[in-house]
Design goal:
two-stranded antiparallel sheet; 7 helices; 209 residues; disordered N terminus; 16% strand; Glutaredoxin
Length: 209
């Protein structure tokens, strides 16, 4: 009986894995440094204004910061206290900034348009918060996590990719301000050091096409 019970649990686990595999789809390869920003003319709705926007419209003189985010991921909750500070830094350096929600598998729940709008209001987001329908933009970027950072220069070429900094739990204990430093280097025409860091967060919740 113990063997049968163990076998049943194993079979159940296998079925669960197969079910998840059929529901969630892996990301494509991440953009490489120097790659052009894809889908610049793709229209996406900003939940705060209700307006359709494109990355090309949001791009400014010295570039564009794209942050893949969501409503409830614990890693987003840790890092989002830096979002508005980053927006201010971007504005100072004539760089656009946008948050992208690609969690299509949770669009009828935690990441619905209504909850995104409520989230943006609660947190006082200064930047647009866009819905990436069917995670098309995330797929084109190869975005994998929330948060996942993509910084593009004045020529819309990828300059930095990865994490915001090295301490999501406490911004006062940060030792390496990867993104802020990358912005400083980029606007001077220099290459960030490092250009790539590991993005740490929840997986983007994709659906099977």
């Amino acid at each position: 009986m113990k063997y049968i019970k163990t076998l049943s649990l194993s079979a159940f686990a296998l079925i669960a894995v197969v079910a998840l595999a059929s529901w969630f789809r892996p990301a494509a390869a991440e953009l490489s440094i120097g790659d052009a920003a894809p889908m610049l003319t793709q229209s996406m709705m900003d939940v705060q204004s209700g307006e359709e926007m494109t990355l090309r419209e949001l791009n400014q003189k010295h570039g564009l910061l794209v942050v893949f985010s969501c409503n409830t991921c614990p890693f987003v909750l840790q890092w989002e206290d830096r979002y508005n500070e980053l927006y201010d830094l971007c504005q100072k350096n004539e760089i656009g900034m946008v948050l992208i929600n690609s969690n299509e598998a949770k669009r009828s729940g935690d990441d619905s348009a209504e909850r995104m709008k409520a989230k943006a209001k609660k947190e006082g987001y200064k930047m647009p918060y866009l819905i990436d329908e069917r995670h098309q933009l995330a797929d084109a970027f190869g975005a994998r996590t929330t948060p996942h950072i993509f910084l593009f220069n004045e020529s819309a070429k990828l300059s930095y990719r990865g994490a915001i900094d090295d301490n999501g739990e406490d911004k006062n204990a940060v030792k390496n301000r990867y993104l802020a430093d990358a912005i400083g280097k980029m606007v001077k025409g220099e290459s960030p050091e490092p250009e790539v860091t590991k993005s740490i967060g929840c997986s983007i919740k994709r659906v099977k096409s």
